[in-house]
Amino acid sequence: MKKCTVVVAAVVAASSGLAFAQFDAYYDGSQSRLVGGAFDVTWASAGTYDGVAHSTGDLIGTYGAGSLAYTYDGPGDRGAGQYADGSFNGFCIELQSIAGGTRTYDVIEIADAPNPAPGLGGDGYDILDQIEVKAVVAAAIDLGWINNDLSASGAVSNGQLAAIQGMIWTMVFDDAVVTANYGFVAGYMQDIQDRIDFMELNGMGQNVAGLRVMANADSQDQLYVVPLPPAAFAGLLTLGGLGGFSRLRRR
């Protein structure tokens, strides 16, 4: 992908580095929708990372991609929509493996992720990564591929879900290049980029209400939309500020 241009008028408050709330969940792989081997992730430039020297283009790994399913584990108000029965879907923001069993997840801003930091993209993420990820998700919602709570729409294909995941990785992995291994996935990624451009050109909102990260140091961090109206998350969606940001990222 060559670029992502994003302009937003509403931005969440400055990152605090603190979790808003916690909940327990386990990975329900039987309900996930993945395209195996969808992407190669390679180093964008030569350098030494974690004490290991890499050349430009060295393969980091080949990864499946798509929508991942989780289930709440524990009591409490689970909200509405896809959360009502205790199950929910998300997209990952790091390449760490998903740990089995129940884990306790912190709900944090995208700009405060990943956990642990640094991630593959360098010294963690920042507010501009957060803006770009929200633009990708907003475009996928506008295309009708996913709903506002990240659940898959009835007509979406696994390839389209994989493309959403690939675009998210493209935004946050600053030191890596994300390449689709299948033409149909690459085409869907271009559809997302085209919709991002269209929404920006026409002044359409590219923010996604309640979009956060569910983070755990021992398992893969996921995008997560705070369900309403659980008491544990009361006031979370009222945090915010006004401002304007524009960013052009070339790939």
Question: Overview of this structure, please?
Answer:
This protein is α+β, with helices and mostly antiparallel strands. The protein has one domain. 20% of the residues lie in helices and 34% in strands. It is built from three helices and twelve strands. Strands 2, 3, 6, 7, 8, 9, 10 and 11 form an eight-stranded antiparallel sheet that branches. A two-stranded antiparallel ribbon has the order 1-12. A two-stranded antiparallel sheet has the order 4-5. A hairpin with a 2-residue loop joins strand 4 (47-49) and strand 5 (52-54). Helix 1 packs antiparallel against helix 2 (158-172) and helix 1 (127-142) crosses helix 3. The longest helix has 19 residues, at 183-201. The protein is globular. Residues 5-17 and 230-251 have low confidence and may be disordered.
Layout of helices and strands:
Layout: E1 3-11, E2 21-27, E3 33-43, E4 47-49, E5 52-54, E6 59-72, E7 87-90, E8 103-108, H1 127-142, H2 158-172, E9 176-180, H3 183-201, E10 211-216, E11 219-225, E12 241-250
Antiparallel strand pairs: 1-12, 2-6, 2-8, 3-6, 3-9, 4-5, 6-7, 8-10, 10-11
Helix pairs in contact: 1-2, 1-3, 2-3
